[in-house]
Specification:
The chain is of the alpha/beta class. α10 packs across α23 (564-575).
Length: 653
């Protein structure tokens, strides 16, 4: 019996989550007859034709479905092959994801420009040192210039990167290793302007334009690189400039961070601009007094999705959970206001909020939700808007019913490892460097490094793949870094703490003990995957592990992805030379030509791959094999006799 036949026969109900807090709230929803993403996923069977890339709905001659006997040979009415259709679907998904991340980055650049011109309320430049470093990377002269003039020049250069007027190549292409830059130039993959690549992807995938699958997918890679080394990287750098570069801090994660006796306000979405101000407003003594005057013990702020990561890593604000927790938080009955901006916000929130007292507040001029209260955020009145929102939450406290059920589960965590901090942590203040990491990879204490990132998807058991892979990899002496909702998963399950070195392999544990770091590092939000690109470049630059990212014993895994942004991230990592494995399902699995190009074809061209494998054990095996292959190619695969760290070695580290 084939794997898929076996799966069809297996009718064992799948667990919805491995998180006890989630299970408690799912039960509560079921008993109350409330619809959630967990119930709707059972009611909505995924279309098997669309699920594997066999349906083209790009024009009104179709939709064309390439199914049935000889499907691989069939074409659409226009003559488009399965390969062309799959490549177009993939390229459009990447463009969608890049547009989302990059629009986020553009808004941060606009905020920085407004700060420089004194047009905003509440924001300042929190990390001037980083501003100067960014200016230097952008080749912007700083000598004798006022801070605000430097900020204006940096913000303008960033905006030019979006507009495509910064030059022939995006500015941050120069951050990649030289060999990587050559590969991109050789194959015409170097991004020219963020908007330009997105537009060109949409143009080339329109009916009757680009009809060569490999050529379309090259544009997919170029567009994704405009995200990873453009929009998202700018978003990360400029957020650090404006709001501060993260340093490790402690916090907690999961629904148990909500407080029964306080006004609970949740910030959810992606952009840090408004949430930064909400943090300030929630700590305002006048508003705290106002909350007390309404009978609450105080104001409790928590986060969901990547906004949660932004305020977690800069302020220690606890995440109430990841993507699949947004409805569950409302179901506790304890949330006075859920404040959302853009991306990953379920439309089902408002009808659910109406069944409780929760006020859903939209804030972005780009995103309205029917029925929700819209309080539009603009930088000029940032703090006033944030205070108005917090006040609305406080006023709503009186409407909370008696039926509150907060699941008492939290995980302790350490978050906020920026690439600057990792550098400092490894090398110390005066010798900040990645040398100790490189040396420990070379000597085999650390076998390699894997990024476990991305979302939750209700088609698979929440957090299961993420937690399994994190645990198994650190046991095998692989350092794990995390971003996005995958990082929240590890936070909820207690994996982001130094104590986790107890389950790590001997080698990794020794390094973690010597440096004093957890074996699983929280690096931030989805746009902060760009930090991983920066780290990989710096590791290459440090020397001893080849001369390109594709030489490193590293991989990326996105076990529970659900959206286009994840595909954009996976593609830019692959186009940067990383082996990337996604779980869940292959969105173009029926298009053999595309599957082959994204694996073998990209391996040959850019030294990275984007592959899909729903079985977590197989993912583990694939990734470990890749790490060992790379170690062998570097000549560092031989088992060396383990020498324990003595005091001198510790001092050296
Ligand atoms: S929020 S994109 S569910 S990681 Fe960045 Fe989480 Fe995925 Fe949204």
């Amino acid at each position: 019996m084939s794997d898929s036949e076996e799966k069809k026969k297996d009718k064992t109900p799948r667990a919805k989550s491995i998180d006890p807090a989630a299970l408690e709230m799912i039960d509560r929803a079921e008993s109350a007859g409330l619809s959630t993403v967990f119930s709707r996923v059972d009611e909505m069977k995924a279309c098997p034709i669309g699920a594997a890339g066999s349906c083209c709905s790009l024009c009104a001659m179709g939709p064309c479905r390439l199914v049935g006997k000889g499907a691989e040979e069939k074409t659409g009415i226009c003559g488009a092959t399965h390969g062309t259709i799959g490549a177009r679907l993939m390229a459009r998904a990447i463009a969608g994801g890049v547009a989302a991340h990059s629009d986020h980055g553009r808004d941060i650049a606009r905020t920085l420009l407004a700060v420089a011109k004194g047009h905003v309320q509440g924001f300042t430049i929190k990390d001037p040192d980083k501003l100067y470093r960014v200016a230097e990377m952008m080749d912007i002269a700083t000598e004798g210039k006022e801070l605000n003039d430097v900020a204006a020049a940096v913000a303008q250069r960033a905006l030019d990167n979006f507009n495509g007027t910064a030059g022939d190549e995006l500015t941050y292409v120069n951050r990649a290793p030289g060999k990587r830059q050559e590969i991109w130039r050789k194959y015409g993959l170097t991004p020219r302007g963020v908007d330009r690549e997105v537009v060109e992807s949409m143009h080339r995938t329109h009916v009757g334009v680009d009809q060569d699958a490999e050529h379309i997918l090259d544009q997919g890679m170029r567009t994704s690189l405009a995200d990873g080394w453009g929009g998202a990287m700018l978003a990360t750098d400029l957020s650090d400039v404006l709001f501060g570069t993260p340093k490790p801090l402690i916090s907690q994660a999961n629904l148990g961070v909500l407080k029964e006796d306080q006004v609970n306000i949740i910030v959810h979405g992606h952009e840090p601009t408004l949430s930064e101000m909400i943090v300030a407003a929630s700590q305002d003594p006048e508003l705290i007094e106002y909350a007390k005057s309404k009978g609450a013990a105080g104001i409790n702020l928590a986060g969901i999705c990547c906004t949660a990561n932004e305020v977690l890593m800069r302020h220690g604000i606890p995440p109430a959970g990841n993507f699949l927790h947004q409805e569950l938080a409302i179901i506790t009955g304890a949330v006075e206001a859920m404040v959302v901006d853009v991306q990953c916000v379920l439309q089902a929130l408002q009808p659910l909020a109406e069944k409780f007292h929760t006020k859903l507040i939209t804030t972005s001029p780009k995103a309205k939700i029917p029925g929700a209260t819209h309080v539009e955020f603009d930088e000029e009145h940032a703090l006033d808007t944030a205070k108005e929102i917090v006040r609305m939450g406080i006023d709503n406290y009186a409407n909370r019913g008696g039926d509150v059920a907060i699941p008492q589960y939290t995980g302790d965590l350490v978050a906020g490892f920026s690439h600057e901090y990792i550098n400092y942590m490894l090398g110390g203040k005066y010798r900040a460097s990645f040398r100790p990491l490189n040396d420990n990879i070379i000597n085999g204490r650390i076998q390699g490094a894997v990024a476990i990132v991305g979302c939750n998807n209700p088609r698979v058991t929440q957090d299961e793949g993420i937690i399994y892979l994190v645990r198994e990899l650190i046991k095998r002496d692989v350092l794990v870094v995390q971003t996005g909702c995958a990082a929240h998963a590890s936070g909820k399950h207690g994996l982001l703490v130094p104590e986790m070195m107890e389950i790590a392999g001997d080698g990794l544990r020794e390094v973690c003990e010597a440096v004093g770091m957890p074996p699983v590092l929280h690096l931030g939000s989805c746009v902060d995957n760009s930090r991983i690109m920066t780290i990989l470049s710096q590791v290459v630059e440090e020397g001893g592990l080849g001369d390109d990212i594709s030489d490193l014993p590293v991989a990326g895994i996105c076990p529970e992805y659900y959206c286009e942004k994840a595909l954009a991230i996976g593609t830019y990592a692959a186009a940067s030379g990383v082996y990337v494995v996604f779980g869940v399902r292959n969105p173009v699995g029926d298009c053999t030509e595309v599957v082959d190009i994204m694996s073998g074809g990209w391996e040959e061209k850019v030294g990275g791959q984007l592959v899909f494998e729903p079985d977590y054990e197989k993912i583990l095996e694939m990734v470990m094999n890749r790490i060992q292959e790379k170690r062998k190619a570097l000549g560092i695969h031989e088992e060396k006799e383990r020498v324990l760290f003595d005091m001198a070695a510790r001092r050296e580290l």
